[in-house]
Amino acid sequence: MDAMVRQRNEEWNRIIHRLDKAGVPPDVRWRTLILYMRNVRGFSFLSERQKSEIQQLIVETIKAREYTDTQYADVVRRQEEILLGPHKEKIRMALDESEALLGDFRELLLRKKGDVQDLETLTVELVESEKDPREMISAMRKAFHDVVQAMEADMADLTRMSMVDGLTQLYNRRAFDEHVECCARTCLQERLPLALIMADIDNFKRFNDTYGHRIGDQALRVVAKVLQTHASEVNGGNGKDPNAKYFAARYGGEEFAVVLRGVGLSEAAGLAESLRSRVERYNFTIQDNSGNVLHGGIRITVSLGVAQLDPCWNGAWADNLVEAADKRLYEAKERGRNCVCWADPD
User: Alpha helices of 130-171 — where are they, by DSSP H?
Assistant: First the structure.
């Protein structure tokens, strides 16, 4: 017991010595903050990017040697942004999706109100008809059964709508987040590879500025169509099976994601190259509302980043996988766009 206490005291003295050497003043607030940020780097729920940003913040703080109240408040603010930033983005997207779902839900409620009113009218008519009671009960039972079936179908539609992007009909960000989290856990447990492709339409803002947002939406649908066809081929005809090998989703804006369950990095890179080539070859035309072709031969290209789940990551598996693929996507943009970048997990 004494040896354990002595060991802890020695470790604490070493930490104090490092803080003194780094020039951190003997202020309880500053020393607590620096030590807290130092320990945060070991939290398994943080992504590698968040840990790296916390480390950079510690280095910048110690280098600045500016230990004022204003600087303290600024460091606390930046630390909170690093820790909470990804969650705030997910909350914002969830609120946007919820707003759209509320509109769909209102429509369903109005339809159900009409169905219930029809059921009420039918019931009154049957009672007033003075038919045989058995016939009346049979007719009412059938009417109730039809309404219940319609409500069950509407609930299934509502569930589907909550997981599908309205514009492209691909899975949405919510579905993607749930799927990649589930796949990460499953693949780690079963020791299967898991790869992710992140794809982004090149120069999409300029495309929108040139042709307008309506045509920009058409371009998003085109890329989604290519993804759906590709998924169907890889999955053996079922492109929308959430449990299949190839899971395509609209990640946000002009960015798309493909989760590849049981697929290694090399195969994933090959699929990404196939996807890039298909989009590049697509003959995109602009049509007016009557279907007349206004512009033809317009080329759309995408840049793609590919990464594989690394079992050595310290938690936050899904976030780290997205960050790794996003980093490769950024490299593809830096290399001139319309290409695929990938690298080994290490």
Answer: 133-161
Which residues carry out catalysis?
254
pLDDT at 214 over 80: yes
The conformational region for residue 337 under phi > 0 = left, psi -120 to 50 = alpha, else beta, is left
Distance CA 249, CA 252 (A): 9
Contact call for residues 108 and 154 (beta carbons, < 8 A): yes
Structure token pair of residue 130: 């003075």
pTM of the model: 0.62
DSSP state at residue 179? H
CB atoms within 10 A of CB 156: 10
Q: Is 304's pLDDT higher than 80?
A: yes
Distance CA 326, CA 252 (A): 13
Q: What is the DSSP code (8-state) at residue 335?
A: T
Q: Is the pLDDT of residue 294 over 90?
A: no
Q: What is the mean pLDDT of residues 81-96?
A: 64
- Residue 307 φ/ψ, nearest 5 degrees: -145, 160
* Cβ neighbours for 161, distance < 8 A, ≥ 6 positions apart: 101, 104
DSSP H/E element including 217: helix 213-234
Is 309 within 8 Å of 195 (Cβ atoms)?
A: yes
Q: Are 328 and 306 in contact (CB under 8 A)?
A: yes
DSSP string, 78-119: HHHHHHHHHHHHHHHHHHHHHHHHHHHHHHHHHHHHHHHHHH
pLDDT > 60? residue 181: yes
Q: What average pLDDT score do residues 21-48 get?
A: 71
Q: What is the pLDDT of residue 32?
A: 76
Provide the pLDDT for residue 283: 85
> What is the Cα 332 distance to its own chain's centre?
20
304 and 233 in contact (C-beta within 8 Å)?
A: no
E strand or H helix at 323: helix 317-334
Q: What is the pLDDT of residue 191?
A: 93
